[in-house]
Amino acid sequence: MHQRRHHIGVVLERICSQARLTAEAVADRTGSTPRDVADFLSGKKFPSTIFILRLAQISGTDPQLLFKVWEDEHERRAPRLHEPAKLVDDQAG
């Protein structure tokens, strides 16, 4: 089964590519581990706001844009607390 990549990983990967930053360079310049950077870029791990700010600084990206992407993904990953639970199967007869 193919796992869907998270939007933030795609965006971070594109930013690094456009800025010609390798994952190793990003790790070194943001104070992250290479494994964490790889996980952020693949969408396996969710980056901290500190990482987002540092990536914006080293890549020349608008930090407000990156924070907006971070917020959108954070909301997307959060459990849906306001959706009513389905207690009965509508198809049951």
TrEMBL record:
CDD domains: HTH_XRE (cd00093). Transmembrane segments: none annotated. It comes from Streptomyces ramulosus. Pfam families: HTH_31. Residues 12-66 form the HTH cro/C1-type domain. InterPro entries: Cro/C1-type_HTH (IPR001387), Lambda_DNA-bd_dom_sf (IPR010982). This is Helix-turn-helix domain-containing protein.
